[in-house]
């Protein structure tokens, strides 16, 4: 579900911050402790966190945490008189693998299926075609149910559901279209999957 990725990028340091820098910052690259705001690595790390933290990198996943720098190259002067550093660093990313079993909470239900929250990530969809058969939807409440031995077992809102990841979809045009940058698709078409209350 979580993994480490390497990222190469360029980080800008404004002219007003240059007095905190030597040509190449020499602090412990792997340290993730809290520096004072005047520490060179703290400034670089803040730039990285502002750009990446809690954001989706296409094909890599949701960036959860900065780990540390692998390399900080020599700086170049940018058009504003600041410095542009080429940096390589590691971050923890969230991207579940296909077939992984995950638990979340149902936060939405409509004719297309269910929406599930993992607490830190809400763009999980279980399409109606991937709900347990036979199924039906209540026209008034819009709640889906699995019909089992003449009983309707509902997918209740705010209740815990267990699902299998069937796909992870990245939307490269998310900023323009208003669609989520990353969507996890799941299914519950096996024993043990679906609402936790069904199996306890």
From TrEMBL:
SUPFAM superfamilies linked to this entry: N-terminal, heterodimerisation domain of RBP7 (RpoE), Nucleic acid-binding proteins
GO cellular component: RNA polymerase III complex
GO annotation (BP), single: transcription initiation at RNA polymerase III promoter
Keyword terms: DNA-directed RNA polymerase, Transcription
Keyword Zinc-finger: no
Domain RNA polymerase III subunit Rpc25: 100-173
Entry superkingdom: Eukaryota
Compartment(s) of residence: Nucleus
One Pfam family, short name: RNA_pol_Rbc25
InterPro entries: NA-bd_OB-fold, RNA_pol_III_Rbc25, RNA_pol_Rpb7-like_N_sf, Rpb7-like
Family that this chain belongs to: Belongs to the eukaryotic RPB7/RPC8 RNA polymerase subunit family.
PANTHER family in alphabetical order: DNA-DIRECTED RNA POLYMERASE II, III, DNA-DIRECTED RNA POLYMERASE III SUBUNIT RPC8
Name by which UniProt lists this protein: RPB7 subunit of the RNA polymerase III
């Amino acid at each position: 579900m979580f993994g480490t990725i390497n990222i190469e990028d360029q980080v800008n340091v404004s002219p007003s911050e240059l007095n905190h820098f030597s040509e190449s910052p020499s602090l412990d690259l792997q340290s993730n402790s809290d520096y004072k705001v005047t520490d060179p690595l703290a400034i670089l790390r803040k730039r990285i966190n502002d750009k990446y933290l809690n954001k989706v990198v296409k094909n890599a996943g949701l960036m959860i945490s900065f780990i540390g720098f692998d390399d900080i190259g020599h700086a170049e002067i940018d058009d504003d008189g600041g410095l542009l550093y080429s940096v390589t660093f590691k971050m923890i990313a969230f991207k579940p693998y296909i077939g992984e079993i995950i638990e979340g909470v149902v936060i939405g239900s409509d004719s297309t299926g269910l929406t599930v929250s993992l607490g830190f990530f809400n763009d999980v969809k279980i399409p109606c075609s991937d709900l347990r058969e036979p199924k039906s939807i209540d026209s008034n409440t819009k709640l889906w149910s699995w019909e089992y031995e003449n009983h309707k077992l509902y997918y209740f809102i705010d209740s815990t559901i267990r699902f299998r990841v069937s796909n992870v979809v990245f939307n490269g045009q998310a900023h323009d279209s208003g669609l989520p940058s990353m969507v996890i698709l799941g299914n519950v078409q096996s024993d043990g999957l679906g609402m936790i209350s069904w199996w306890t």
